[in-house]
Input
Amino acid sequence: MNAIEIHDICKSYGRVRALSGVSLEVKEGEIFGLIGPDGAGKTTLFRILTTLLLADSGSASVAGLDVVKDYAGIRRIIGYMPGRFSLYQDLSVKENLEFFATVFGTTVEENYDVIRDIYSQIEPFRDRRAGALSGGMKQKLALCCALVHKPSVLFLDEPTTGVDAVSRRDFWNMLARIKASGVTVFVSTPYMDEASLCDRVALIMRGGIIDSGTPSKIESEYPYALYAVKGTPMYPLLKYLRTADGVLSCFSFGSVHHLAVDPSAAGVGEARQKILSDIVSAGFRDCDVQEIRPGIEDCFMYLAGRSRQN
Amino acid sequence: MKEFLAFVRKEFNHIFRDRRTMLIVLILPVVQMILFGYAVRTEIEHARVDIVGDMSDPEVRRIVGRMDSNRYLDVQEVLPSTGFISSRFRRNESDVAVCFERDFGTRLRKTGTGHVKVVGDGSDPNSAQMVVNYVMGVLRSEQTEISAELSGSESSVAFTPSVQLMYNPAMKSAYNFVPGVMGLIMMIICSMMTSVSIVREKETGTMELLLASPVKPLWILVSKVLPYLLVSTVNFITILLLSRYMMGVPLRGSLLLLSVVAVLFVFTSLSLGLLISVVASTQKTALLLSGMGLMMPTVLLSGIIFPCENMPAALQWLSHLIPAKWFIIMVKKIMIQGAGFPYIIKEFCILAGMTVFLMTVGVRKFRIRL
Output
């Protein structure tokens, strides 16, 4: 049985279409990532699955329970961590945790082993008010509160947004441990680099799923040859490359530009040489071109561009 | 049950940890009590006048006719004795009674003095003072006319009117504003605070978490309401003590009846707060709605400051929709007139009806989803 099944869900807010025909399946016990930029419809999908919103059309179920008919049943077995920090700022760490444990009809002691790993990190601050915690600690507390009743499906809506890189890595380690205890994790993120940490992912843009599968499957389906191009000055180089002959797309990725060319046009070594000599002769300095393997972000850019054309 | 208690404890924590909330909840009542001591006065039209006296006496008939033609005064009924005045006041059928002594006309012509007693309804001292002044004015002008008619003879005539305010002989305005402030405070604490505390959960996103939990939405509401029920009980006692021992307002009726009425009104306000929280999505909206939408009409239309009798018909109609108005009328009757339940049954039923209606709408509208 699939932990989550989504069939052709549509949802509009007035004239704005937030989700248009989303279908997905999440298997039991996997970490499933919903990856897309802000405004793609991630939070809307989360709210429909956590029974907080009604879809306009389509159906969905969580652990075999229908999100409309069996909403009460779903609320008993899921853990939900909304995108925004949503705990009581004026209550202490301990009070928040105990409150949410009681709300779900359990106690902190009873399920202590579920949260021990995470809670032990914030336990020294248990009498501090939640509002006075740092971002990373707030996030850990929120995760504890969502886990304290041993949910069978855990919904995490952009848990790592606004958290520093070290805490983000910590957080994904925690998710791996949670998954190991048998919990299905459905997580959304705008960070493409987190895709490789998921078992399977779905890429979402403008309310539609543009691709889904394991991260390696999505990456292997990237159709072009990809090069990382370096040169000074950076921005004129980007503009130059976009207008250059045989270039399919070029995007800026931090300190390099990712340049896609048709792999059938020329041999691999030749293409690299051609690009390098082109930009050197165009007057750019410190030039370097390397062939690279595509990442999820390259795939996303490619798929997004393709779906925009359709 | 354990879930519910956890909720209630959480609500109390919210209240006690926020200094602003504490301030509003505990200090505001005292400040308002003192502020409203200087209530505004206004004039009154069509005050209802009862007459006690011998209508076959031509002098009495003449004065009564004159009062009736005065645009501020309407003569209602001739009562057989002064004993009927208080029940007329309690049923709110009359505002003032004018009592002429026996053989008023004869004595006036013979001795030049006649005794008139003006009895006002002191449970509403502002209006009572006004009405009594109108009556006195009519008496005075009548007096000069009769003096002029008799000027041929040796004696000038003089009425010796004595004024008495039933229930509130000292004309303390505290009698007027204590019931009003009581109504206002209950309204603020219950409606404003509950609506804000529910909407705060929406705004901070915790409502999202609570709704995604197995707790029944109705319990969330009840747990929100309960702490404020207790807080307003404390306020009720504070106001009563302040008014009794600081302002010297009597409690002539039964304390039990007064408490029952107060609890009913608290429920009315709580359901109003609930309704507001359903409509509003931010704390600011909730505050505005309860401030402008509830407080202002309550202050202006419930009769605390401006007598309802004096408003245009449309506003008078509107004032019937203000729950606080009915509560204030009941409190006045119980505290100052010492009326029992039979005298407030109409107001009680109206308020109870409003409460049931508001509560039903509020609970129905409270969504189980976002």
Summary: The interface with chain A takes residues 2-3, 6-7, 10, 13-14, 17-18, 204-206, 208-215, 368-370 of chain B (CB under 8 Å). The two ends of chain B are 25 Å apart (CA to CA).
